């Protein structure tokens, strides 16, 4: 595995090159197509929260986006406990809203299941959809994104996550588990 950090935005995994900034532009296009007047953006901590912060600004959407944590509803809570990531903040009424959840990487679907449980603790949305930067397959639950900027295959011993530089530039981190 070769991590190319020269630009801060490109990761090389074997012959696979992932340019996080280029994929963000594709995600921006996809989110524009999915948004309605009643759509509220909610990012899963931490990569998804970074994405919605930037999307909210780039799309000139009013208000603040939501941030949601999976910590309290994870099926591995006894092993992980509470993480140091941001806590859930939904600065709008969830009831009747069209919620577009954003995440950096979709893998097994377990984080999304926990996030949906957390979301319903706050109310009953009219609909819940999902957009992701990267869908890496490997699903353990029947979950599919409404939009994925890219689909890649990685080994089960590898993890992929979004990183953000102080300048706001996105890149990917690939690690061996």
Word description of this protein:
The protein has about 180 residues and is α/β, with parallel strands linked by helices. The chain has one domain (about 10-175): Rossmann fold, CATH 3.40.50. Helices cover about 25% and strands about 30% of the residues. The protein has helices at about 20-35, 45-60, 75-80, 110-120; strands spanning about 10-15, 15-20, 40-45, 65-70, 100-105, 125-135, 145-150, 160-165, 170-175. The chain has a five-stranded parallel beta sheet. The protein has a two-stranded antiparallel ribbon with strand order 1-2.
Set out the fold topology.
Elements: E1 10-13, E2 16-19, H1 20-34, E3 39-44, H2 47-58, E4 66-68, H3 77-80, E5 98-106, H4 110-121, E6 127-135, E7 147-151, E8 158-164, E9 170-176
Parallel strand pairs: 3-4, 3-5, 5-6, 6-7
Antiparallel strand pairs: 1-2, 8-9
CATH class: Alpha Beta
At CATH's second level, what is the architecture?
3-Layer(aba) Sandwich
Q: What best-fitting shape do the alpha-carbon axes yield?
A: globular
Low-confidence parts? 1-9
The SS-based structural class is: alpha/beta
Q: What about the largest sheet? A: 5 strands, parallel
Number of helices: 4
**Number of individual domains:** 1
Strand order of the largest sheet: 4-3-5-6-7
Mean pLDDT: 87
Radius of gyration from the alpha-carbon trace, in angstroms: 16 Å
Instruction: Write the H/E string, N to C.
Output: EEHEHEHEHEEEE
Straight-line distance between termini: 13 Å
Number of beta strands: 9
What portion of residues is helical? 10-25%
Percent strand equals 25-35%
And the CATH topology?
A: Rossmann fold
């Amino acid at each position: 595995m070769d991590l190319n950090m020269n630009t801060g935005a490109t990761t090389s995994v074997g012959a696979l090159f992932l340019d996080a900034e280029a994929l963000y532009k594709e995600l921006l296009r996809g989110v524009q197509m999915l948004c309605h007047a009643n759509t509220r953006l909610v990012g899963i901590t931490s990569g998804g929260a970074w994405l919605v912060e930037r999307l909210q600004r780039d799309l000139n959407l009013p208000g603040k986006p939501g941030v949601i944590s999976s910590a309290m509803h994870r099926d591995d809570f006894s092993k992980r406990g509470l993480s140091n990531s941001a806590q859930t903040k939904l600065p709008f009424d969830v009831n009747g809203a069209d919620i577009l959840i954003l995440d950096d990487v979709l893998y097994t679907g377990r984080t999304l299941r926990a996030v949906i449980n957390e979301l319903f603790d706050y109310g009953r949305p009219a609909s819940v959809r999902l957009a992701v930067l990267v869908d890496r397959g490997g699903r353990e639950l029947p979950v599919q994104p409404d939009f994925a900027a890219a689909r890649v295959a990685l080994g089960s011993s590898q993890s992929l996550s979004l990183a953000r530089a102080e300048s706001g530039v996105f890149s990917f981190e690939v690690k061996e588990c």
